[in-house]
Amino acid sequence: MGTGLFSIGVSGIKAAQMGLLATEHNVVNAGTAGYSRQATVQATNVSVGTGAGSIGQGVRVITVKRMYDDFLSERLNTAQTSLSQLDTLHTQLSQIDNMLADPNAGLSPALQQFFAGAQKVASDPSSLPARQSMISASQTLTSRFQVLDARLSELAEQTNGRIASAVSAINGYSVQIAELNERVLLAQGAYGQPPNDLLDQRDQLITELNKLVKVSVNENSDGTYNVFFGNGQQLVGGGRAVELTAQASSADLTRIAVGLKTPGGAQELPESMITGGELGGL
Question: What is the pTM of this model?
Answer without folding.
Answer: 0.84
